[in-house]
């Protein structure tokens, strides 16, 4: 990649590619040869580069900025989306860690209102209401200040808004505060009920969402590799109807995917997405129904915390059932597919499947990805923001990520 800065669009796009990890290597070739490798299968960019991914072999003295056709090809290459996944994953983990660390960001039941901003009210925390009963808010003033409220303020919401906040906080971390404030309007960062967002300019679900990626059972995503999952929103939903619910506030759990291990990604690819795990979830539930007993968080303590005393105290007739559950939950998906759920923070998906055996023991649960625009609208807007910053500011397109 050229080292000297230039403000031309081609040079700025070349710098974006460099920042994402593409490397130009001089070789005895007459024409450039792309050796993309498999970055979507790696844990991070250093691992991808160590494996020889994201390389372009070029003739001596080749200046990428002078070849816009190759720049365009690389920008549209699937491996570039995987490299963007490293950026997105790091931003997701920064955002969810900060949300998780705010002990004053609480959960509220639906009948208490969807969002609450404490005694000072929404405006004091950088938000303005546009729907009654806490069903719709948009930033008032600085976008980054509004999201900071959920990092450090006294606020509450149910888990659907928690997912929206995690998605928007990820965008803040991904773009950086200055670009986040400039690149999005207040309406595009609306939060509230999911139905409310459809009637707003929301960049998540409204008029600004653009092309959305539909892959409910994660078949397409599983084929793309582990980095294709990271940052994506989804939900865990009860299978049987509402008459089978004992705890209505745990009828579903909305999540954002924070990380996927290599073993979990391989399992998802081997089984073609979530449908296989819906069947395993049902089998886990069926076995659990054969294990009567009492005690708060009983299955959570048995199967997730693996409470030794509790496991040893199980009746002899239930010990074979416990071994079956252990075997099913030993699938690497349950331990290696990590999600953020408000207010539980970041935990493996197996924790939630087990937890729901206690909360709603009369129904199994299924897994779904929600509609999202990470590989479409968000990728394009991030790319344009980086190129615009390069051209306008005369500095590197890829500043160090926030700490």
Largest sheet: number of strands, sense, barrel closure:
5 strands, antiparallel
Inertia-based shape = globular
Q: Mean pLDDT across all residues, rounded?
A: 93
Spatial strand arrangement across the major sheet: 13-12-11-10-14
Uncertain regions spanning at least 5 consecutive residues: 1-6, 395-403
Radius of gyration: 23 Å
Helix content: 40-55%
- Work out the strand percent: 5-15%
Structural class: alpha+beta
> How many angstroms does the end-to-end distance come to?
27 Å
Number of helices: 18
Number of strands: 14
Describe, in plain words, how this protein is organized in 3D.
The protein has helices spanning 9-20, 45-50, 68-75, 78-101, 121-124, 143-152, 159-175, 177-183, 194-198, 219-224, 262-271, 275-288, 298-304, 308-313, 319-329, 332-336, 349-359, 374-393, and strands spanning 23-26, 33-35, 55-58, 105-107, 115-116, 127-131, 136-139, 155-157, 191-192, 233-238, 252-260, 337-341, 345-348, 365-369. The longest helix has 24 residues, at 78-101. Strand 6 (127-131) and strand 7 form a beta hairpin. The chain is globular. It has 403 residues and is of the alpha+beta class. 44% of the residues are buried. Helix 13 runs antiparallel to helix 17. The strands form four sheets. The protein has a five-stranded antiparallel β-sheet, sandwiched between helices.
Characterize this entry briefly.
The chain is α+β, with helices and mostly antiparallel strands and 403 residues long. The chain has helices at residues 9-20, 45-50, 68-75, 78-101, 121-124, 143-152, 159-175, 177-183, 194-198, 219-224, 262-271, 275-288, 298-304, 308-313, 319-329, 332-336, 349-359, 374-393; strands spanning 23-26, 33-35, 55-58, 105-107, 115-116, 127-131, 136-139, 155-157, 191-192, 233-238, 252-260, 337-341, 345-348, 365-369.
